[in-house]
From TrEMBL:
PROSITE patterns from the UniProt entry: PPR (PS51375)
Gene3D superfamilies named in the record: Tetratricopeptide repeat domain (1.25.40.10)
GO molecular function per UniProt: RNA binding
Biological process per Gene Ontology, one example term: RNA modification
Alphabetic keyword roster: Repeat
Superkingdom classification of source: Eukaryota
Keyword hit for Nuclease: no
Annotated PPR repeat ranges: 10-44, 143-177, 241-275, 339-373, 440-474, 476-511
Assigned protein family: Belongs to the PPR family. PCMP-E subfamily.
Record's protein name: Pentatricopeptide repeat-containing protein
């Protein structure tokens, strides 16, 4: 009414009215006023766009931005900065289009626009575009906010050295770092020397009394195990907030100093500072003894914190980890609200405590409670199905994965391969493997191990070669153990030797106990015991007792007396004390070869060195 009575409202009046309409949610009225407004100025449009952005009406703001373009009204730096900030929500393509408009309109010389542009690209996971925008704009446009945006973006992508170099450039350019600059760099995981220099620079820049910087510096030193340095900062803080106390408690707890963590917690209580869910979650998570978990549980009950889901989840996990599944389940049942983390903790708890069937029951109960399982839940349940050969439940989980589009997750695909193989359905393992769009080393290891488990040596070797030729993933120790085991059980001597040699010569692996055992077993099964002798001569310093025992057993099985004597000697040299089993097996090797005098000599030698064979016994009484 007042506005309509104004003779000729100026631009500021129109802008004020439009801003008020937008904040009150009267978008239709704002549109109508924009159409009625006789003045063709950008300010009122900016007011509506900004108001929509601040009130969460992004789609309306974008629509207004397009209407401005269509109406021929030229955007200004405020328009571009606001719309680019809205694109930070993941609208990479639209943000790139706005970038083109910014370039064509000549607004890359405005600091606010450049800052919004850089932040937009980083938030949309376009780090290379963000860095390019920074590097191609005039240095005179950059301010401390610009540098902070790039430093923060680089740190979030673990490009910490680049972030540090940019920080140095910022200092050389004469810009003073802000609190945010130091908070970002201190959390980046740089080495201790650099961290100390950062802390010194923060003090030099006047942030010694800053609680936020002090808390970040404490966390930084605790991460490097520098407890004394962190403690000194804590004591020098003029004011300590709950984050300060949480940082020092968490720092001691993570560095396995439970006494200091509990002492600080008690001091925190004495000073009247109320512990929050992070304080208790940390103490419960890092409690090393069951008694400590019980003590914190009592504190939670006494102080009425039992209703905080994060704290109760920590309690359930802590009792599970300490083997007290009964207490964990009691707390679980008493919870009024259970989220995915709660269910995952108790389901994995029953599995790890040897009760897979109970864990499976809880999974079914979880579904009926209308809490959707996540990828971690399904991975746990597939492990349960694998360990208990629960095929029908495994198939139901598979169906759930397909219905909800989870098969693209590599972890679940790997779990399905293993589950079907352990339940006796190798063909289904193969079908799952073939259907996976993304495979990692675990995927290849799972299918190769499945072939090995079923004695399908040729298929295991074929799969291994396919991995080498079609995949950029390199085999690891588990891969070689699986494929060599498959070769051993299938008698594929040539393939086994070739793969073993490629492991050493092509991939640079030092063969471990498992690989040596597989190769020796392979050669022994095929009757190539002489080759195994040459192998242990060349690798005598790397041969483990387990490998020697595998070879010794092969000598006994295939009646190779000469090599059996050599291996027995090697075992006796490495044994801390004379082992009766070595003498007994060597005696049996001679006896089986009809060399009775040699067998008797070995038995006499046992008596001479004072080694007694453990007598056999039976649990059955006559």
């Amino acid at each position: 009414m007042v506005f309509s009575e104004m003779g000729c409202p100026d631009i500021y009046s129109w802008t004020t009215l439009l801003s008020a309409c937008t904040k009150l949610g009267e978008i239709t009225s704002a549109y109508q006023l924009l159409d009625e407004m006789p003045l063709r100025r950008v300010e009122p449009w900016n007011a509506v766009i900004t108001g929509c952005a601040e009130s969460g009406r992004s789609s309306v703001a974008f629509d207004l931005f397009r209407r401005m373009q269509l109406s021929g009204l030229r955007h200004d730096n405020y328009t571009f900065a606001c719309v680019l900030s809205l694109c930070s929500g993941g609208l990479y393509c639209f943000g790139s289009q706005v970038h083109c408009s910014v370039f064509k309109s000549g607004f890359l010389g405005w600091t606010s626009v450049v800052n919004s542009l850089i932040s937009m690209y980083f938030n949309c996971e376009g780090a290379s575009d963000a860095c390019k925008a920074f590097e191609t704009t005039d240095e005179m446009v950059h301010n401390v906010i610009t540098y902070n945006a790039v430093i923060n973006g680089l740190v979030n992508m673990d490009r910490n050295k680049e972030a540090l170099n940019l920080f140095k450039k910022m200092l050389n350019f004469g810009l003073k770092p802000t609190e945010l600059t130091f908070l970002t760099l201190m959390s980046s995981g740089l080495d201790l020397i650099v961290c100390s220099q950062l802390h010194a620079q923060a003090i030099q820049s006047g942030y010694e009394s800053s609680i936020a910087v002090g808390n970040a510096a404490m966390a930084m030193y605790f991460d490097h195990g520098q407890l004394d340095a962190a403690r000194m900062i804590f004591e020098k803080l003029d004011e300590k907030d709950v984050v300060s106390w949480n940082t020092v408690i968490a720092g001691y707890a993570q560095n396995r100093n439970a006494i200091s963590a509990i002492t600080e917690f008690m001091e925190m209580q004495r000073r009247g500072i109320k512990a929050d869910e992070y304080t208790l979650g940390t103490l419960i998570t890092y409690a090393e003894m069951l008694e400590l978990v019980q003590m914190f549980y009592a504190f939670v009950l006494k102080n009425g914190i039992i209703l905080i889901t994060e704290v109760v989840n920590a309690l359930v996990s802590a009792f599970v980890n300490k083997g007290d599944i009964t207490s964990a389940y009691q707390i679980f049942r008493s919870m009024p609200f259970k989220n995915q983390i709660t269910w995952n903790a108790i389901i994995s708890g029953f599995l790890s405590n040897g009760q897979p069937s109970r864990a499976l029951e809880l999974f079914l109960l979880m579904q009926s409670s209308k809490t959707d399982p996540d990828i971690y839940t399904l991975t746990i349940v597939l492990s349960i199905c694998s360990s208990s050969s629960a095929l029908e439940h495994g198939k139901q989980v598979h169906a759930y994965i397909l219905r909800h589009g989870f098969l693209k997750d590599t972890f679940l695909g790997n779990g399905l391969i293993t589950m079907y193989a352990k339940c006796g359905y190798l063909d289904r393992s193969c079908r799952v493997f073939d259907s996976m769009t993304v495979r990692d080393i675990v995927s290849w290891n799972a299918i190769i191990s499945s072939f090995a488990q079923y004695g399908e040596g040729t298929k295991a070797v074929h799969c291994f070669k396919k991995m080498q030729s079609e995949s950029s993933i390199k085999p690891d120790n588990t891969t070689f153990t699986a494929v060599l085991s498959a070769c051993s059980h299938a008698g594929l001597v040539y393939d086994g030797i070739q793969i073993f040699n490629s492991m050493v010569n092509e991939y640079g692996f030092v063969p471990g106990v498992d690989q040596f055992s597989c190769l020796i077993d392979l050669l022994a099964r095929a009757g190539y015991l002489d080759e195994t002798e040459r192998l242990i001569e060349n690798k005598s310093s790397d041969i483990d007792d387990i490998v020697l025992w595998a070879l010794f057993s092969a000598c006994a099985a295939y009646g190779n007396v000469r090599l059996g004597r050599i291996v027995a000697g090697m075992l006796l040299q490495t044994a801390e004390k004379s082992d009766a089993a070595i003498y007994v097996m060597l005696s049996n090797i001679h006896a089986n070869a009809g060399q009775w005098e040699d067998a008797a000599h070995v038995r006499e030698l046992m008596k001479t060195v004072g080694v007694m064979k453990q007598p056999g016994c039976s649990w059955f009484k006559a």
